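Final report, closing paragraph on structural work. Over the funding period we assembled a curated collection of sequence-structure pairs, and we close with a single example.
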Amino acid sequence: MNNLVGRLCVKLAGRESGRHCIIVDIIDDNSVIIDGNVKRRKCNINHLEFLNKKANIVNGASTEQTIEAMKKIGIEIMTKTKKERAPKAQENKEEKSQKKEEKRIKNEKTKK
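Its predicted structure, as stored:
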């Protein structure tokens, strides 16, 4: 089982299926910790397809070391990009108070 650390895999199950990952640590006979183009997490080995490539990483390697190893193997790293949000239109306090005053005057006129 110890020869699995550093092994390149493709995740078969879950929302990250189809993404490449590297085995970072072994928990027991059925579970490993994976990292790479997936969120670092515990994974069942039955949900992984092992590839013939192996990265040169130590047991319990950090995410940065894992990403470096994937680049050396030739795997494209997927990076997260933040969505740009439209700026919120903010009215300053004076405009708000003017609108309130106009509404108040309008309501007084309709009551008369």
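The chain has a mean pLDDT of 86. Residues 14 and 47 are 8 Å apart (CA to CA). We thank the funder for supporting this effort.
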